[in-house]
Every structure is written in structure tokens, then in C-alpha cells.
């Protein structure tokens, strides 16, 4: 019996690894803005295309902020740079790697590193979102982040509740160099005038087939951490394995 349990546990572990774009990502402990740094990746598939993100953990949960490189093949060691205007100097940044056609839950994050030389400060809008992205990271290059930040802050706080103000912000962000308009979701929920409070939504978690925004509660704003999602998957696979054992 222990033999079969061990085999099913190994199978569950292997399926768990398949949900990740790569096994592990490592970067230096300190990265200076505008300076090339080396990223080391294990278990790459040379046939896949990857998106490399800058990620931050402002609200406690790590999530993608913008992309450094979009749809590229990677080697085990690749070099990248981070624009100084993307944010302030801090130690809550990391690098994320995901397959271009994958989900946010499949992104593998590196160790956190200290970012030095950052020239930007977070706006009132970003502070209000408490770490949730104000735009879909898949559609926002880090080189355009400063431009998008100005657009979002210029319409704040009206863009949280007023559709006209939101559309003004959206048009402004879509005009920033390199921003992708296709399948873009709203960075903050546009609520009705009867709503007593406004809530922000994570653009990566609120995507619908029509591209419209949907309101979420405060707990959903930052999205479920990838680790929590993966834990649920493992528990589910372990349950399936347990049922299979009963029929042996």
C-alpha cells in the first residue's frame, strides 16, 4: 500500500511542476536601474515563448507589474535591464517568468531583490490599490509604466466611480508607447452611482470574454497568491490519487 501511495504522491508532484512555466528563477540580490543584470532559469523549454515580468509585493502578495520582455525565447542565462522610472528604490521587487499563453497562476517568481536607482514614487492611485496592478501587466511594457502612471493618477479618484473619467484614463494609457489595447480589462471597477463604496479589481483576475470589468471585494484585489492556488491543485490531485487507491 505504501508503494502505491508513494507512486501517486510522485505523480501529483510531477503534475504540480507542470503548472509552472519554469522550475526556478534566480537574480542578483541587488539590481541597479538601467544596468544589465543576469537572470538564471532552470528547466526551460526551448520551443516555448516566455514573457519576463517585473513584479512587486506592495500589498504582501507578489504579482506582475509590467513586462520587461514580451514573447521571447530564453536561455538558461539571459540579461535584462529595469527602467529607473518604473518605481522607487525598494526591496520588494522580483522577476517573474510565464509562458505567453499561460495564466498568472503559472508565473514563476525569482528571489526578491533590492532595486536601486529608482526615480519614481508611487501615486495616490497606486497606494489606494494596495499592490493591485492598475493595468494588465501582459499589455503594459515597463518602458511605458511611467506614462501609464501619469494617466492613471491624472483621473484619480474619479476613475474609480465615474465611467467618463475611467474612459479618459483608458484612452490616455492606450496612447502610451508600446501598450497593447487588445483584450484590455479595466484596472479599477467602474461602479454604479448607487454603490456606497468603490472597489478596485486586479486587471489580470477580472478579465471576461467581453473585456468588461467586474467588481471584486477587497480580498480579491491583489489576487490569490500563486502558492495558494498551487496548494489547492495539489490537494485536489492528492484526493484523486486517494480515490484511485480505493479501487486497487
From TrEMBL:
<keyword id="KW-0732">Signal</keyword>
<protein>
    <submittedName>
        <fullName>Uncharacterized protein</fullName>
    </submittedName>
</protein>
<feature type="compositionally biased region" description="Low complexity">
    <location>
        <begin position="182"/>
        <end position="216"/>
    </location>
</feature>
<feature type="signal peptide">
    <location>
        <begin position="1"/>
        <end position="21"/>
    </location>
</feature>
<feature type="region of interest" description="Disordered">
    <location>
        <begin position="181"/>
        <end position="224"/>
    </location>
</feature>
